[in-house]
Amino acid sequence: MSDLQPDRPARPSKPMKPRLVLGAILGLAALSTAGFGLWIASLPPASVALAPPVPQAETDALLAALKPKRPRPLIAIVGINDATETTDYLLPHGILKRADVAEVVSIATGPGPVRLFPALTVQPDMTIADFDASYPEGADHVIVPAMSRDDDPVVTDWLRDQARKGAVIVGICAGAKVLAAAGLLKGKRAVTHWYYLDRLRKIDPTIAHAPDRRMVADGGVVTTTGITASMPMMLTLVEAIAGRPRAEAVARDLGIARWDARHASGAFALSRPFAVTVLANRLAFWNHEELGIALAPGMDEVSLALAADAWSRTYRSTVTAYAPSGTVETRNGIRLIPDRQGTDGPEARRVPIFPESPPAEALDRTLAAIAARYGAGTADAVAMQLEYPR
């Protein structure tokens, strides 16, 4: 006999009393909070580590690996149209263009704008199909930013094709995961953003992580650590193409004192202070705010990218780009598409990009401004996400 007894009418359920409902909610909240508390307590404290020196032979090998096949190389920066990392995509373009040592082309998987993450929208120069039609011999270097999808088949197929044609493939930050998905890191030494190291190993367990290196070359492929590693990486590429004096001149313009492969990997990890700050900022939803960046023709795209990226990672604010109308072209030809047209945005909540400062100094000033608005813990959390050695 069935225990359900369908022939017997079911008893109507009694509504729960408000106090019982509130008690149940509070009980679940307490259990959830207790779980978070135990997890946070299990995390290590913030750590301090020193970057060990890099042997000169390793630096020389990195520069040799980046040597182009053309006297004036062709460099392609590729992205997908939805959620390609802001700094990874814009900084290579801005730095290489100001260095004037190569032809630089920004491309995307499909037509239309590239919506960057966590802020800004750009119009690329061409699609992958257009690039292949214009440059059938391939690029000298391909820059691969972090993307919302690691295994986009258009990107991975194209990267394998470019590698076969002799291009050096450079994965910026979590762009290393895209290279791994394309099969380009099998059995090779590599680095990536600290947060995605375990994910990189899961994509390809044959990858050998190289700790305490900000950039690593192995077999025609170069990878870097987190987001701000795009600055030293591009200066190293400039040095490989045009020599040390040219790289030094560009570095002075950017406000960067050194750009070698030294890195203190131990200083970047999911720590207790980082988790507490992020969780507290996310829970304080009533204090979240929208900040604006006023786009202007000729603005410096490196400072813009760093400021927009940093302010968008506070877990307290989102960044919206404003312009009176239309597309805005930056100092080095990046075409920005504003989120809102017809206005410069709210003056009281406008994000400064410090145009009078070199871009690297503008990042330090941005972090100081974030600390002044949201506290030092938030500035530290942003620097940790950017993997920026302060």
Terminal CA distance: 72 Å
- Strands, total number: 17
Q: Let me know the average pLDDT.
A: 90
CATH superfamily of the largest domain: Class I glutamine amidotransferase (GATase) domain
Profile the largest sheet: 7 strands, mixed
Share of helix, binned? 40-55%
Beta-strand content estimate: 15-25%
Q: Count the helices. How many?
A: 13
Radius of gyration: 24 Å
CATH level 1 class label of the largest domain: Alpha Beta
How do the helices and strands follow one another from N- to C-terminus?
Answer: HHEEHEEEEHEHEHEHEEEHHHEHEEEEHH
CATH topology of the largest domain: Rossmann fold
Shape: globular
Strand order of the largest sheet: 6-3-1-7-8-12-11
The low-confidence runs, each spanning 5 or more residues with pLDDT under 50, are 1-32
**Coarse structural class:** alpha/beta
What CATH architecture label of the largest domain applies? Answer: 3-Layer(aba) Sandwich
Total count of domains: 2
Organism: Paracoccus versutus
Pfam family, one: DJ-1_PfpI
InterPro entries: Class_I_gatase-like, DJ-1/PfpI, INH-QAR
Protein name: DJ-1/PfpI family protein
Characterise the protein shown here.
- The structure is a single chain.
- The protein is an alpha/beta fold and 390 residues long.
- It folds into two domains: 209 residues, Rossmann fold, CATH 3.40.50; 115 residues, no CATH class.
- Strands 6-3-1-7-8-12-11 form a seven-stranded mixed sheet, with helices on both faces. A five-stranded mixed sheet has the order 2-4-5-16-15.
- The N and C termini lie far apart (72 Å).
- The N terminus is likely disordered.
- InterPro entries: Class_I_gatase-like, DJ-1/PfpI, INH-QAR.
- Pfam families: DJ-1_PfpI (PF01965).
- This is DJ-1/PfpI family protein.
